[in-house]
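Hi R.,

As promised on Friday, here is the backbone we talked about, encoded as structure tokens. Could you run it through your design pipeline when you get a chance and send me back a sequence?
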């Protein structure tokens, strides 16, 4: 079948704890409907079983809203896209099964999307970096530096060997008694604090590799020792602790990003993923850009954290490249870029 050059695609994201749907037409994102799952807050982290159940409850509502607000009927769709991975198996299954059902009912092709590639391609929703560029993708599950040569040609050139930076934010917040997800709260308190108050030791990693498990343990001991001296240490110093920790984590990221820019000679630098919403990272990146003459790209907030608009953007380019998948496609929880 000859495919149109100006496709209309419905995209579904369900890899973790946001159920999201978006319609894209001729490469222009028409909407980005997101249902977040508050159910996890009281558990201090995402509970996979609860996440898949919440996706099942939300998915039809979210898809209907996306179709209605885009003013699109099912028979106007040229394809349906979904996140194949990485993510939680149960959560991914809900999106994949829903997409299969709709594709069958409407007799339209399916497009599988890699969630991490989509975080990078979120940059094409509004701004347009030129190739090649570097993207630091920082989320709750990943910390990667990606060399992006083209829409569908990208390579991870550095990544964490253990925890993700978002996980370090969330776990540190939990240690201070803050609810999940703690990253945005640390960011909020950090803006009121002095980042030079406390110092943490650096974990030295070779090349473009990251490690965040060391700082997690160091932070645990730091709190334990300070609390021995003063039970109210956290309450009395919350802003300064958050500011100091945030600066430490941001500097770990920027150090490697600078090295990657130096090694590749690339000065078009993007950030993506939930932690790209962090004000400390945004400010320091802007500062570094001035010093090193980088051109930087920071997505709008709604396109940093998990969303279907980025899946739709990735699907658009896959559609144009004729990359469709078959009905027997299954989710891959540890899907890698290029995998
Ligand atoms: O990309 P994302 O929505 O989901 C994953 O694919 O993981 O990223 C979620 C992560 C969480 O760890 C959350 O705490 C972190 O992004 N995050 C932040 C901020 N906003 C979200 N971390 C630091 N500062 C923020 N403002
Ligand atoms: Zn994500």
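Update: got your reply. Pasting your designed sequence below so it's all in one thread:
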């Amino acid at each position: 079948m000859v495919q149109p050059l100006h496709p209309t695609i419905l995209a579904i994201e369900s890899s973790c704890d946001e159920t999201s749907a978006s319609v894209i037409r001729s490469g222009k994102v028409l909407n980005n409907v997101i249902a977040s799952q508050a159910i996890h807050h009281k558990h201090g982290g995402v509970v996979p079983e609860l996440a898949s159940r919440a996706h099942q409850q939300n998915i039809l509502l979210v898809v209907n809203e996306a179709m209605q607000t885009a003013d699109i009927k099912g028979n106007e769709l040229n394809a349906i896209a979904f996140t194949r991975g990485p993510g939680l198996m149960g959560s991914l299954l809900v999106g994949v099964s829903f997409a299969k059902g709709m594709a069958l009912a409407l007799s339209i092709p399916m497009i599988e999307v890699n969630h991490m590639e989509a975080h990078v391609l979120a940059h094409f929703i509004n701004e347009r970096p030129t190739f090649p560029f570097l993207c630091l993708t920082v989320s709750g599950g990943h910390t990667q530096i990606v060399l992006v040569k083209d829409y569908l040609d990208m390579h991870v050139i550095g990544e964490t060997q253990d925890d993700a930076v978002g996980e370090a934010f969330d776990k540190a917040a939990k240690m201070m008694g803050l609810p999940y997800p703690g990253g945005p709260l640390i960011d909020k308190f950090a803006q009121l604090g002095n980042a030079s108050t406390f110092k943490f030791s650096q974990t030295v990693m070779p090349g473009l590799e990251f490690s965040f498990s060391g700082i997690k343990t160091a932070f645990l001991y730091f709190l334990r020792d300070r609390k021995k001296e003063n039970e109210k240490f956290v309450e009395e110093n919350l802003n300064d602790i958050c500011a100091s920790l945030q600066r430490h984590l941001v500097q770990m990221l920027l150090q490697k990003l600078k090295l990657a820019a130096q090694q590749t000679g690339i000065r078009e630098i993007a950030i993506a993923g939930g932690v790209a919403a962090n004000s400390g990272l945004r400010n320091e990146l802007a500062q570094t850009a001035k010093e090193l003459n980088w051109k930087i790209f920071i997505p709008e907030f709604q396109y940093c954290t998990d969303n279907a608009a980025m899946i739709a953007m990735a699907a658009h380019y896959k559609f144009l490249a004729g990359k469709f998948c078959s009905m027997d496609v299954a989710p891959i929880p540890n899907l890698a870029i290029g995998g």
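One thing I noticed while checking it: The chain has a mean pLDDT of 94.

Thanks again,
M.
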